[in-house]
Structures are given as structure tokens and as C-alpha cells.
Amino acid sequence: MLRRYPTTLLAVLVMSGLQALTPMPDANLRAWVNNNYPGAIVGSDIDETHPGVQSATYIDLQFAGTISDLMGMQAFSSLGTLNVSNNPITYFMGPQSLHTLIANNCGLTGTFIVPLPVQTMLVSFNSITTLDLSVAQQLNSVLAHHNQLTSITGYNGSVTSMDLSYNQLTTIPDNFQSLNSVDISHNLFATLPSHFGQLSSVNASYNLITSFTFLPDFSADLSHNLIDHVVGLGDAQSVNLSFNPLTQGMDNTGYELEDLTITDTQLPCLPYLHNALVNLYCTNSLFACLPNQPPNLVMSAVNFGFPPAVCTSIDPCYQPLPSIALRVFLQGPYNSATLDMHDSLRAQGLLPTVEPYTALGFSYTGPGWPDTLDPSVFNVTGSDAIVDWIVVDMAVDNGVLNPGDAEHYSRPALLQRDGDVVALDGSWPLPLDMRYGSYRTAVRHRNHLGAIVRFGESFGAITSAVDFTLYTATACFSEAMHGDSLIADERQLWSGDVTWNRQLKYVGAGDDRDPILQAIGGIQPLNVVSGLYSNADVNMDGLIKYTGFNNDRDPILVNIGGWTPLAVRNQIGFY
């Protein structure tokens, strides 16, 4: 027998068959849903098939009342962002589509387990003590400031940024391999975690930090801590160390540092300031001058707290210029019997009182030199007598990963008989008005081939030593100097570059022999010219001779090989 139902009852049965109902026990949540999606609530359930429920991507419940249970929110299958702030939430539930959860000021306590699908989570202004990330493997951003966090558990390698400020943390797990930036200010850290050096930025202000090993490449705020000594700032571009003791000073500021803030500290002196520094804030400090002036530093009394000035040599914070204890022999005047050089040009009064290299076409690089010629140095005799002017040329050491602040620098200097290279006032070691960094030392002379060290070294406040005379002391390129020997330490610069074109040549265009003949008249090879300061005087004895004993032509032939006039000897190792 066919059973017949009333029309109205049949309609209800059909409708019920089409609905997919999900329990939603929280009456306040049901009321909010019913107001915003009329017809979505069926009794104490929510209809998942409701068009509004299916299409909702953003829901803001922060002013919905006192919702505590989110059961049923999984019905919103397209929901991406859910804000439940300012509700006393005790139970979380959401759809698999949820990527952003905002639950600020919800009274959350104890351990909070981050829901599975969430990528961005904001749970600030709660009382959470433990943050459990074990199931949220897609999580990449966490804002959990102003809680009572003492620990973070659960591995998560995808998190890129975390704000954990205003908590009670003393450590943070080191397994956040993708972490890029973190804010742990206003916590209880005693040391900055070593793995933080992998980040780009960190805010660790207002902690109990006394030391750190690594800093992020970009920025670090370590203000308001207990740091007493800074070894270095690594490759950080911006660092704030204000309100730290710093009584033991800073060893290094870092070559990449652009902004440094060290206001209100007890730092006795600034370290050397590297080239990249642009902004320095150091008000309320013990020092009142700068150790040096980086080229782009903003010189501001407002930023410094004192009139901008570089420390003078009488100031305790003075940083000396780099200097070099340099020795070199010239083959022309070298005496193999006495192991030194003669000073005939000085003795005959032929040395000029102005450096000769500018007139030869040489261009010095850098800001100049801090000393001026004292004519009395030409009156000194003995082993410290002046032989001639030379050029000290400091090339940037491109053989190292980071040469620091090095910039090509050159200056004139005076060469003594014993090989010491002294300043224009006769002082030694030789001051170099150049920036700290890694350099390769080179020497040049007007009628000798120059030489350069093969490996550079760091130049700073401590004097560096380079001895071109000793084969075992300073490594040069093979055959770059005369007398290279493991047995006899008596190397010299090759003589005979009369044209000063960085090669020795006996015949052909640009050779070094013809200028000697021209210097004595160009016709009679037996002529001898005296009383001239000339590149043609290869042996530097004050006489220009083309033939005969101690002539200036033969050394050129000998130095290119002695039997093949067409041979050429080139300067080695640098331009």
C-alpha cells in the first residue's frame, strides 16, 4: 500500500536530505552566525551547504560577545582568516582552509597547541605559558607577545618570523631553520642564542644578555642589556647597543655596519670606524671625539653629543694611522761586499728636495701623506744616509674574501743606505695615511723595476713589517727581484728601467740603452756626464757613462740575460 505524507512534511524530509549539518554547541556563536548568515543555523547545528557558509573567506568575531567554543566553524570550508580576539575561547576548531588565526586577548592559559592548518597565528595578550607547534607544520609567522611564555615546543622548520616579546623566555629552540626575524625583547635571556646569526634581524632589547657570538646580517637591537664587552659586530648593517655598560669596550664595528647606536653607555672609546658607517648615535658617552672619519659618516653634533672632530694624538681615544716597517735594496747602488747601498747622489748634493715621480708622470692615490720634507735629513751620513726617493704603493688585497676598508694608496718616501724606508722627516716606521684593511705592499723606483708582495696582510693600528731584502721574510713573485735565493738574503730591485716603463729592454723601440747614449750627447759614447739627477744614471753614482768601468749600459744587458740582446725583462706581479 502506498503511504501518502502531507505536502509540508514531504518538503521537510527532502530539505533535510540535502543539508549537511555540523554541531555548533556555543549559543553565542550560533546567534552570530544566524545574524550574519540567515538560515544557516538549524537547531543547534550549522548547515555546511548554506551558500554564505560555503563562500565565506574572512570572519571577524572579535565583537561577537562571549564566544568560548568554536566547534562548528569547520563548516566554513572556504574560510582563510578567522579573528576571535576578545572572546574567552576555550576550544578551537576550524576548517582545513584556515591559514590565519587571530586570537588576541582571549584569556588563553597554559599550553596552547597551534591548530594544524594555520600559517599565520596571532595569540598576543593572553597568559599562555607553553607554545606547542608540533602539529602546525605549515606555520610561518607567530605573534605571541605579551603572554607568560617560558617554553616553545614542537619542531617547525617553516616558521620565518616570530614576535615573542614581553614573555618570560630564557631560550628558544634552535631547530627553526627558516627563521628570518625574531623579536624576543622584554624576556629573560642571559645570552643571545648562537643560531640567531642565521637571521636577518633580531630585537633582543630589555633582557639580561651579557654576551653574544653571532649577530644577524641586517639588524640587531640589543639595547637595555648587560653587555660589557663587544668582540665584533660581524656583518650586521644596523646595531643598537644603547643602555649597556660596555665598560670593556668594543674591539671592532664590522665592515658592513651602516648604523650604530650606543647612546647612554660607559664605552671608554670608540673602535676604528669602518667605511660603511653612515649614522652614529652616541650621546651621553664618555668620549668626545672620533677615532677616524668614514667617508660617508654624517658628522652631527646632535647625533654625537659633542662637536664632530677626529681625535688628536694627545687624546686617549686616538687611533694611529697604519704604518710600515719597510726595507728594500736597489740593485744600482747596492754593494754586495758591505751588504748596503752607497749614497753618492746625496753626497754630491744631487737629490731633489721635491719628490721626482710626479714630474715623471706618476699619479699618487689617496689623501696624501702626513709628513713634509725636513731638508736636514740629507745631511745624515752613515747607514741612515739617504740614497734616493722611492714610491710606496699599497694595493688592495684582492686575494682575500674581504679586504675591509682598503683603498689604493701611494706616497713618496726616502730610502736609507741600510734599506730602511723612512718618512720625509726621517722618522720610522713609515706612516700611511690610508684606511685600515688588507693590502699588498709594493715599491717603485724611477730606474728600477718595481716589486710587490705576493700575499697581502692586514694594516691597522699596529705597525706591519715588510722586508723586500729577505727572500725568507717577504714572498714575492718568482724572478721579480734580483738575487732571489734561499741561501743569501740580499735581494734588490732590478736596475736599468731608464724609461720607467716597467720593463728592461736593451734594443728596439722604447729600449733603455739609447737614453743613456742620448744623455751623454748621443754621438761620442766615451763621454761622461756628471752632476745630474737622471734616470740614465743606472748605478746612481752621479755619473752617466755609456762605456768603460762602472758604465750604466752594461747592467741592462746583464739583467735581461747577458747574451741575448733581444730579450726583455718585465716587471712582475702588478701593473
Give your account of this protein's structure.
- This protein is mostly beta strands.
- Among the domains are: 190-318, Leucine-rich repeat, LRR (right-handed beta-alpha superhelix); 323-467, no CATH class; 503-570.
- Helices cover 8% and strands 21% of the residues.
- It is built from 7 helices and 33 strands.
- The protein has helices spanning 7-18, 27-36, 51-55, 301-304, 344-347, 514-519, 554-559, and strands spanning 21-23, 41-42, 45-47, 58-60, 81-83, 100-102, 109-113, 120-122, 127-132, 141-143, 151-153, 161-163, 181-183, 201-203, 219-221, 238-240, 259-261, 279-281, 323-327, 334-335, 340-341, 386-396, 409-416, 421-422, 430-431, 437-445, 448-452, 457-459, 464-467, 503-505, 528-530, 543-545, 568-570.
- The chain has a 12-stranded parallel β-sheet. Strands 22, 23, 24, 26, 27 and 28 form a 6-stranded antiparallel β-sheet that branches.
- Strand 23 and strand 24 form a beta hairpin.
- The longest helix is centred in the N-terminal third of the chain and has 12 residues, at 7-18.
- The radius of gyration is 39 Å and the shape is elongated.
- It starts with 6 loop residues before the first helix and ends in a 5-residue tail after the last strand.
- Residues 1-17 have low confidence and may be disordered.
Mean pLDDT over the full residue set: 93
How many E-type strands?
33
Largest sheet properties: 12 strands, parallel
How many H/I helices? Answer: 7
Structural class: mainly beta
Percent of residues in beta strands?
15-25%
How are the strands of the largest sheet arranged?
4-5-6-8-10-12-13-14-15-16-17-18
- Low-confidence runs of at least 5 consecutive residues: 1-17
Tell me the span between the first and last alpha carbons.
112 Å
Estimated helix fraction: under 10%
Rg, rounded, reads: 39 Å
Q: Give the overall shape, derived from the CA principal axes.
A: elongated
